[in-house]
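Exercise 3.2. Students should predict the tertiary structure of the chain below and write it as structure tokens, then compare their answer with the key that follows.

Predict this chain's 3D structure.
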Amino acid sequence: MKHLKLFILCLLSINTLLGCNTNKELQPGVSIELAEFRKQVVSEIEYTLHLTIPENKDLPITGKNVITFSLSENSRDLALDFREKAENLSAININGSNTDILFENEHVLLPKSLLTTGSNTVSIEFKAGETSLNRNPEYLYTLFVPDRARTAFPLFDQPNLKANYTLSLELPQNWKAVSNAPLEAKTERDSTTLWSFEPSDLISSYLFSFVAGEFETITRTVDGYEMTLLHRETDEDKVERNLEDIFQLHASSIKWLEDYTGIKYPFKKFDFALIPSFQYGGMEHVGAIQYRASSLFLDEAPSESRLLGRASLIAHETAHMWFGDLVTMDWFNDVWTKEVFANFMAAKIVNPSFPNINHDLNFLVRHYPSAYSVDRTTGANPIRQELPNLNKAGTMYGAIIYNKAPIMMRQLELLVGEETFREGLQEYLNTYAFANATWPDLISILDQKTSADLKAWSEVWVNTPGRPTFDIQKGEYISMEVRQIDPEGKNRVWPQTFEFMTDHYEELHTYTTRSRSDLSFVDLRSFPGKLYNNSNGYGYGLFSANIALLEGWKVLDDVAKGSLLINIYENMLEGTLDASEYLDRLIEIIPEEENQLLLNLALGHLRTIYWNVFDDEERLARSEELEQLMWQTMLAQQESSRKKIFFNTYRSIVLTASGIDNLYSVWSKELDVNGLILSENDYISMAGVLAIKSPDKADDIISEQLSQIKNSDRKRRFEFIAPSLSNDSETRDSFFESLALEENRQTESWVLSALGNLHHPLRTSDSEKYILPSLELLEQIQVTGDIFFPGRWTGVTLGNYNSDTAVETVRDFLATRPNYNNQLRMKILQSADMLFRVNEIRK
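Answer key:
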């Protein structure tokens, strides 16, 4: 009878809440209809959250959340979000009345009869869900982006309902903690410690966070900014070697952003935690940024690219304090706005710290290849996408918002002018500080400051997918015509400006297009007719190129070189240029190239040709030549960072028996290469490569490497991936099957590393059977995994295949599921692009 009563109450409450919109608003997740209703009626939200976290990770985390909020009207019931079982809720009190728990479709229902216009208080006792608590034996950290706070505790989980959070944590005595707000008090108890934090600033739910566990803490004040770092690294030399740069890069980024925006750092504090095997490079939680530890604690003698990558990551996350945290998107369809500003500002911020870096080249190689890798595919998505429910928000993330959007933003800055662009951003930040805004809100501000039609401009760049093709051919007389073409035949035009250069190298020509009829004419009388298209790297699209242009390599500037490599690579994937011929030219360029950004780009192309484009016979035919080239070039390098670049490529491509023996000698420390500095991570990586390439020794290599690992976090990771390295196919099969269980996918970076081993190019004939079950798991992975996991899962699964049967498996999977989630369909098509293209090239 009790259960029947509860069921009837639930039905009545749902009908009251939703009226005629039953199927729309109270669906699983957070629908846009529900979010818009709550935004209209709910305000002044405060959460007082207490959690008791046992040291034993197998015991549940219990909690209590006291929610106060104001209602503008109470004619309808109200829903809180909680994506957990109803049994996790133990008690609820609404405005002083203990009441039955009404729970339906991931929502806790608050009856209108118990609510009042004005102030309300709801107290809920619960057992925390652990989907996004990332519990490890000695620590945990929350990761609530985009809608995962509701997996841990009940709340209004949408970005445009900002709130203040007052957090207290009861922790094991040897644990430490950090959260969004400063620590107010720490109270020692018999076997635990109560950590009580001040109320946070006004923030969105996905930015609420805490880290707790066995961490070392280091506090420093740099240029007037006090910062505390938490870490678990056991290599004291590595910590000491990196500390000064880490703190200084953060301080420099804060100072630059204060100057650029005209707004002082807007939050109570600025700390950061370095997490082993963190899912992303970093996450911009207010006052408590989380980073992947290896991204900031660099090995000895890091390459120029690694140093620049670290600086860019720090600048990116710091920029989020203004762009994303202070002003937040209204809905996650505009999640790209916070990411594009962070990336765009990061590119500006790192310039003063790296005066010897060609930053135009860095922008080119960081953004264009990645953006093209999606925009060239049949699954390309626009920068701004539709989002009917927040439970699909994670699928919005990817190369388009992180890499195409900054390219778009640079073109926008060129269009309106740098100073006007800055003024517009300052107005935007001041207008919407501690609130929410949309992309059209910014465009409206900028539109008032320029004569250009920014709404029409934005329609193509932001709201549609794909890239243009630039057709370059002889005109009627002695001229060359440059015309932009929409490959989809929709007559779209991507307004943009870029340069092209003649083979006299000193002759630059500027191309600007704003309409479909725009043409650029180049006089052919002064040169034989060769053009270096997009020589300044500003243009976006598929540009014609030919391999013979590499003959002018030594006289090109670095940006023109990078643009040429990218153009040749894209045309190779279109099937118009020969991969083997391109490899021959790369072999000539690579040993002499001094710029590490260009070197890494060229080596990346070499590895793609070697592992993806070549078949087994072609690969074996070139392996000895390439191994010797990489080894001898590595030995000839004077700088340790350059030695490491060539050694890592050698480690990747080595296939001959003598080459593998040579690598084994380095791993076993029988061979010491002068000037080659290797870390524990390097030896772990070598062990993985050797286990796959020397299968008869795999068990011994794995066992020996495990005995050598000193860091406990790295040891647990290697123990996890070890079955994926096994030479026994049944062991690998069993490991893959275990990934169907959510609890075995908790540490996503470990899972992706293991998948990379299972799908290694040398194993594709045996591992192709994993493709279909991997695709069948994708919907579950989207629900249970973090934002990048679905795309990375499909990328690692499909990236090394090129057979007809693999193509057939993917196409049949999609063809037999006409109603499949469109966002996930696009992820599959993006990840399968190399598979489809190489399959066609090899035919």
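Discussion points: The first helix runs from residue 2 to 18. The CA atoms of residues 197 and 379 lie 45 Å apart.
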